[in-house]
Amino acid sequence: ADGYNVLTPSGGSVTIDLANNTKLNHELTLTGASVTVNAPISTGGTPAKGDKFYFRFIQDATGSRDPNALLTFPNSSGAFVAGVAGMIPFSATANTQTTVKFVYNGTKWAPELPGAATS
Q1: Which of 25, 33, 40, 81 is buried most deeply by CB count within 10 Å?
Q2: CA–CA distance from 61 to each of 24, 108, 117 (Å)?
Q3: What is the pTM of this model?
């Protein structure tokens, strides 16, 4: 996956492990199944204000997957700011990718927009 860590849902959820800032690119293919994106962890360290990672969302061959309906981003401490799925300009076209940079503000992860790249 060209330098991206492929996230495979287990039990309906995925967890991004930044591995002490050595794994900063992650991807998830939208297949129609609901997925909870757990609060990112950093095995071997803890996130610090200003830390970042890139999250690539891929529409499967069917396309038209609605991330607002399929993705849940918890809003607890260490997780994501409220309303993340609704902030990201996803493409509904089959086999397209949307890549978003997330930045840690010291308590939560937030998408850095308009830096979302859609291809």
Answers
A1: 40
A2: 26, 32, 19
A3: 0.88
